[in-house]
């Protein structure tokens, strides 16, 4: 897809070395990350829309305060369908570009989730590295509970050949197979059709090998990781993604789902995901 012609407004940010990110205020969503070598690293569907109540299919959706259908809220919560406020964007002394977005409770959020909160997303990038930092503050007088994720859609060259390492010996919930609890024996995960797994207590770093490209996925604060690809069957049912595009993407999500966060009044939770091109 030509990212310069996304069918909704975006903010464009460039680092001094020429890396470029496109961000939508709808969802505070990174829709495109072109590294300093000019290579697009994220997948965004050419059919993505950003209308009221709609989530943009691709980039990095922010999932908050509910993951998937694990509660009474709309699927994946409301952060990805709300318009966030751009607080600041700047180029720092080291040449990296940075932006901050905020979403606070509003009559619309309180109508379905009666909590006072402040969510902030920080984006920072240069060279072959992109970092996303999410913080949640409880501004109310009582504790609240939430789950969250950075639902990163990575652009993939050769889905059948790619390998994800760092998940061996981890327990996971197989959402593509009746939520069964399993255990990964293989050193590397290969994608053969639909995959929808919630891995618990993942290590700080996963490595994705896609042909000659090696990508490091670092996470802090998030305990879990989700690996998702709809495969041919489920992709065909997605109205906002071309039927064959499941072969161009893999979601590797930094997530906090197995144990939702209990946040005391006045307290802050923080988590981050960093994508780093190793080669
Ligand atoms: O289609 P969406 O609402 O964006 O959800 C896309 C996917 O998100 C996560 O990765 C879940 O684990 C999947 O079960 C879900 O299908």
From TrEMBL:
**GO process terms (BP):** carbohydrate metabolic process
Listed GO MF terms: carbohydrate binding; glucose-6-phosphate 1-epimerase activity
Please tell me which top-level EC class this enzyme sits in: isomerase
Q: Which UniProt keywords apply?
A: Isomerase
The record's annotation in CDD domains points to: D-hex-6-P-epi_like (cd09020)
> Which InterPro entries does the record cross-reference, listed alphabetically?
Aldose_1/G6P_1-epimerase (IPR008183), G6P_1-epimerase (IPR025532), Gal_mutarotase_sf_dom (IPR011013), GH-type_carb-bd (IPR014718)
Reactions catalysed: alpha-D-glucose 6-phosphate = beta-D-glucose 6-phosphate
Task: Give the EC number.
Answer: 5.1.3.15
- Do you know which Pfam families this protein is assigned to? Aldose_epim
What is the active site of this protein? 151, 253
Lineage: superkingdom: Bacteria
For this record, an example GO cellular component is:
cytoplasm
Q: Which family does it belong to?
A: Belongs to the glucose-6-phosphate 1-epimerase family.
Specify the protein name: Putative glucose-6-phosphate 1-epimerase
Which species is the source of this protein? Answer: Solimonas aquatica
């Amino acid at each position: 897809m030509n990212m310069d012609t996304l069918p909704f407004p975006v903010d464009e940010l460039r680092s001094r070395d020429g890396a470029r990110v496109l961000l939508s205020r709808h969802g505070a969503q990174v829709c495109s990350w072109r590294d300093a070598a000019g290579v697009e690293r994220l997948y965004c569907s050419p059919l993505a829309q950003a209308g009221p109540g709609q989530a943009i299919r691709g980039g990095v959706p922010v999932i908050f305060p509910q993951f998937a259908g694990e509660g009474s809220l709309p699927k994946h919560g409301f952060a990805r369908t709300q318009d966030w406020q751009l607080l600041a964007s700047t180029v720092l002394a080291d040449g990296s570009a940075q932006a901050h977005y905020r979403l606070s409770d509003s009559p619309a959020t309180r109508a379905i989730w009666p909590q006072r909160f402040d969510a902030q997303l920080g984006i920072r990038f240069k060279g072959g590295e992109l970092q996303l930092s999410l913080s949640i503050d409880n501004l109310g007088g009582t504790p609240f509970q939430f789950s969250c994720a950075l639902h990163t859609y990575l652009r993939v060259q050769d889905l059948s050949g790619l390998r994800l390492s760092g998940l061996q010996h981890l327990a996971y919930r197989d959402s593509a197979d009746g939520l069964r609890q399993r255990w990964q024996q293989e050193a590397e995960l290969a994608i053969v059709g639909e995959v929808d797994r919630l891995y618990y207590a993942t290590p700080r770093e996963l490595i994705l090998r896609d042909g000659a490209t090696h990508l490091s996925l670092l996470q802090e604060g998030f305990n879990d990781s989700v690996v998702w690809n709809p495969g041919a069957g489920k992709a065909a049912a997605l109205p906002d993604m071309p039927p064959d595009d499941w072969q161009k993407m893999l979601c590797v999500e930094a997530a906090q789902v197995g144990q939702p966060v209990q946040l005391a009044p006045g307290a802050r939770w923080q988590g981050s995901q960093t994508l780093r091109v190793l080669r």
